[in-house]
Amino acid sequence: MPRSFAADPHSYARPNEIAVSHLSLDLTVDFEARQLAGAATLTLDRRDPDAREVVLDTWRLDVRAVTTPDGTALPYELADHDPVFGQRLAITTDGADRVVVHYATTDDARALQWLEPQQTASGKRFLFTQNQPILGRSWIPCQDSPGVRATYDAEVRVPADLLALMSATNPTARNADGVYRFEMPTPVPAYLVALAVGDLEFRELGERAGVYAEPTVVDAAAWEFADTEKMMEAAERLYGPYRWGRYDLLVLPPSFPYGGMENPRLTFATPTLLAGDRSLVTVVAHELAHSWSGNLVTNSTWNDIWLNEGFTVYFETRIDEELYGADFTAMLLRLGRQELEQWLAIEEPRDTWLELDLSDPDEGPSKIPYEKGSLFLRTIEAAVGRERFDAFLRDYFDRFAFESMDTETFLAHLREALLTPLGITDEDLQVEAWVRGPGVPSNEPHFASDAFDRVDAEVAAFLAGRPAADLDAADWVSQQRWHFVRALPDDLPYDRFDEADAFFGFSGSGNIEIATAWLEKVIDAGYLFERPAVDTAMADFLTRHGRALYIKKVYLKLAATPTGLDRAREIYADARASYHPVAQMAIDKIVG
Ligand code: BES
Ligand code: ZN
Asked: Which residues, chain by chain, have CB under 5 Å from ion ligand 2?
């Protein structure tokens, strides 16, 4: 436990008075009522001897009683609902070291998505949670601040034909009574508590790694993620021991709103990663990397999210380099830089600083903390050399393990442990411009990629008139095709779009990155509105899955013109109900 907790503008909790150090959940999962009901027992760490109240975050919870473990009622006060932060729950502890909140979730539990049989591969019902950033309070009364860590255990009752899993010790098969017990002995912030309930099977991937998915998906998932154990070994060689025991993956139904979510011991993943050619497994490297950057050393508040995501993108690309080589990774770095440019065009200048000032963390995430953050780390690496930077990072994860980190503390440590001894100043590195300035400072490193130079040459030939079928593209990997799409000009004549699509099959691409890049391009170009088949592919794309950052990009492009906006509204009217509340919130803002 830290000596004192940093102030968090996105939580009502007052952990410097009384902090929650252990959470014990006892919940029944009721699919008919779409409700979790039961109790949360919170173990209290009294940090201020005069403190009388423990303050929790809640969001539209139906709080039925608060008691001591032996059933004595305790006074509590549930404040008015705030549309961003929910309801402050203050419990008078009367000296108790444990309090029990008896509660149920409501229809507004926005961390939860309840799926009907037709929304899953197995044809059975499914429930999953997504807590990051501040949705956890909608199903657990908790101190919902990334700076507050607690161990947890849970007993969860589910229908007997379904398996329950958490970000904790997990079963590998169903039991007869539908009652599952979980332990998470390592302290974690509330955003990393997770639950999934569905028709799930397990496949071993290695000594410490495995994958869960619905029965018709699990073998494909095991094939796609075969490199997971190797990624763990590479990560450990880079930055020290993996501290969470097992690393399993859970492939969710298509409405899962993220590529992946780094729930400890059990990464949640979108089925859109199952491209059939292992081309998207860098997302696994990303979620695995969070086992250090994020889960071990955690951003103090969501304003410091670049310390989670920027470090993780950097670490991810280092794992990719270990497994797939420097030439492959150079393409990823270039694609990341393109991604950053796109998001710089979308976001307000203040939202392009590394140190953020978020009024509503649930509005996020943008890719800026990811890509600008990792580019800043690459800038430091270039200045000090890889060997020194790696030693610095290894020590950083060790020294601050299980602690939280804010931007200023990180910068102070960076100066002391790395820069000052080498005579490098903040001015040399333009630190202030990176952290508290818009856009990208002038000292960014550039990444050369022969593979992309070859693509650029073919793009030039294509634009000069060479037919798509004659391009030298037979051996291109998916990252090269992705780059090709992005490199096409918006004013390309429509018959040339026809040709490119006929040859490469962009409209029907099973690779979500290529499909997204293509749709962005052809919406901008106006081409999509002239080609019913491409429009149908787009509608299908937006209905088939609910991966928030990707559908958001497509809706944003559509919303840029009146015709597009009308079409977006039409599609969204059908698709909305299938999206997770997080994705609904994001898209409501765009087409609402
Ligand atoms: N932790 C994030 C997802 C997240 C971030 C959820 C902020 C809520 C708020 C996860 O690790 C992530 O970054 N997912 C990405 C994939 C990654 C490879 C960039 C995604 O969803 O696309
Ligand atoms: Zn991430």
From this structure: 309, 312
pLDDT digits (tens, 9 = 90+) for 516-553: 999 999 999 999 999 999 999 999 999 999 999 999 99
**What's the number of domains the chain is made of?**
3
Is 363 a domain residue? yes
Q: Are residues 415 and 527 in the same domain?
A: no
Which pTM was predicted?
0.98
* 1 pLDDT above the threshold of 80: no
- Using a 6 Å cutoff on CB, does residue 133 contact ligand 1? yes
**CATH no. for residue 99?**
2.60.40.1730
Count CB atoms within 10 A of the CB of residue 368: 27
Let me know if residue 270 belongs to a domain: no
Residue 19 has φ and ψ, to the nearest 5°, of -105, 150
Give the residue whose CA is nearest to atom 7 of ligand 1.
365
pLDDT digits (tens, 9 = 90+) for 295-354: 999 999 999 999 999 999 999 999 999 999 999 999 999 999 999 999 999 999 999 999
480-504 burial string, b = 16+ CB within 10 Å, else e? bbbbbbbbbeeebeeebbebbbeeb
Q: Pick from 436, 465, 499: which residue ends a domain?
A: 436
pLDDT surpassing 80 at residue 47: yes
Cβ of 289 below 6 Å from ligand 1: no
| Domain-located, residue 199 | no
- For the record, the structure tokens of 381 come out as 């690496």
Instruction: From 222, 388, 397, select the one nearest 315 (Cα to Cα).
Output: 397
Q: How far apart are CA 388 and CA 410, in angstroms?
A: 17
Q: Please tell me the distance from the alpha carbon of residue 572 to that of residue 565, in angstroms, as a whole number.
A: 10
Structure tokens at 386: 């890889």
**Ligand 1 atom with minimal separation from the 305 CA:** 7
> Could you tell me if residue 214 is inside a domain?
no
